[in-house]
Amino acid sequence: MRPDLALLVDDVLVDLANKGLVKRAHKLVGKGQPTVSWDGVVPVGTFSDGVVSSLPPDTGLADSPCSCAANGICRHRLALVIACRSEAPPAVTEAWTPTFSDADLESLLGAPLVARAERHQAGVVVELVPGPPPTARLPTCTVRFLVEGELGYASCDCDEPKCEHVAHAVWAFRRGGERVELAPSQAVVDTAPLDELVGLTDDVLWTGVSRSQGQAQRLARVERALEKAKLTWPLEACEALGEQLTAYSARSARYVPAALAEVLVDPWARRTTLGSGGTPDAAVLGSSIARETRLDKARFVGLGLRVRVLDEGSLVEVFLAESRSGSVLVLQRELAPGADGERITGAGVRLRKAGGVPFHRLATGRILTQVARRRANRALVLGVGVGNTSATAGNWADLPASLLGFGPTDVRPPGLRPRHLAGRVRVLEVDEVVSVGWDPSEQAVVAQVLVGEEPVRVVLPHSGVTPGACAALVEAIEAGPNRISGHLSRAGGAWQIEPLAVEGERIRVLALANPAPVRSEVVAEMPAPSPLARASTQALSLLDEAAHDGLASASAGWSRRLEAAATELTRVGLAGSAARLQAVVTTSRSARSSGERAEVLVAWRRARIQLAAVVERV
């Protein structure tokens, strides 16, 4: 019995192929096929239809010989594995580290592909997750080493049958650590487009959004330059800036002053950080990240969805966790008003489709697709085609551990993080429900649960586009939830989650519930924000106000309010943030008299970065 075959349990086979093929292979074995003989250490399977398969050592399943006409892994190879595996109990897999040599890589991938991987490794940052199975999260894909000591069973979710990502993953594990930059980028990065973007954001911040219309041509020129220079994160920020300016011009609900303020910080923060020796430049700029990556046989688990107002229509966002890595992707669809001119809301979204699959199945099921593309910002694009995307009933029992619980906190300051859409979507395992009720003043459901021994507040405000969500949450909490998915944050010194779905006996997607009144005899009350939270949130709001109006238009009244906010920050113990705010006041007054704007632009950005970081943690 070969040890590597014993490690090819059904979960691994499903990962390498798919559940349907594994089921068909089991049926063959149940019928007594194949007949197995051994040529030394090589098992040879002969089937009743004359097909012959074999499994040489040090050869991946897809590359093993089989006389059938199938491309890639087939039911015959799988049946041979299962037949051989049944001769001994499956081996117990413990944590291990891939320590393959370059000779192993060349044997699997070929010398030319390894050489190409060496050329393309500069600036690639890899996140390593210990097994089993050991997993390497690259910027655009995920590599998992499914069988201990067998490189041929490394699995990458890109759509290339053999790829340089496997080599990058091996080299990262060889280096060790949690986040590994394979090799500092030696290429000279063209930062001129980033400088242009910083100049554009300077102008918007100085003059205000209302005086920054008519920038379409300038934005388009900067976007083209950023794309040519492969500066992914600045390009994402540039596109976001264009969307905010367009939304304001159209008086659209897409315009959010806080989102505008955030994007006015981002390019400057990245430009200032380059060469500082902290975060690698490649990670700051996203220069090693493809804007879009095709995925092969991508598997996802639905974590729920939300529906938001979008002008006359609605925006549906489905949150999908990659089965292999636990990364959360977002599938977005805009829904125009129905035939009666009414906005599509709540339960009306259930049977609308994306990729040929109804939203309610995407939001709760196990998704297998062969027509998916993942963007750098973790947006998911589903292609069309009958049978290319399927959904079966799902549950959260075997979600990747990296997705469960509170997870690591990104220590990078706002403005330097990857521009991911999903943010802090997590799944929490509920140990105890403490309370649940309705806050009539805030029009929100407020519940308290324990995750382990950690208290977590569950808060869901009422929304006209999801009229049954609050009632569904009360019912699900009272019934005793096992897990809750949602957007996790810190508020008032405690953890708080805005839920998407609740798993009990089944998964309930709150936004898709039928309209119903909240039936709760308990009157809940949102805890008052702490003095720290109140002071920092107010100060951040004043800074965002200035971004909307323009620092050139900052009034004496605004400066006085900012000084009062700085005084309050000092009183609650945030002296550093207060000093940042006072610097904005001082440089703003100087700029109004002299017309020199550079110092106040820098002061405003430094203050906003610091206050945004404080608000996240209080």
Can you tag this structure with a few keywords?
about 625 residues; alpha+beta; 7-stranded mixed beta sheet; 5-stranded antiparallel beta sheet; 25 strands; about 35% helix; about 20% strand
Give an account of the 3D structure:
The chain is α+β, with helices and mostly antiparallel strands. It folds into five domains: 3-85, no CATH class; 102-181, no CATH class; 192-285; 402-512, Beta Barrel (OB fold (Dihydrolipoamide Acetyltransferase, E2P)); 531-617. The protein contains 18 helices and 25 strands. Strands 19, 20, 21, 22, 23, 24 and 25 form a seven-stranded mixed sheet that branches. Strand 4 (125-129) and strand 5 (135-137) form a beta hairpin. Helix 3 (19-30) packs across helix 4, helix 11 crosses helix 15 (531-549) and helix 17 runs antiparallel to helix 18 (598-617). The longest helix has 20 residues, at 575-594. The relative contact order is 0.08. The mean pLDDT is 87.
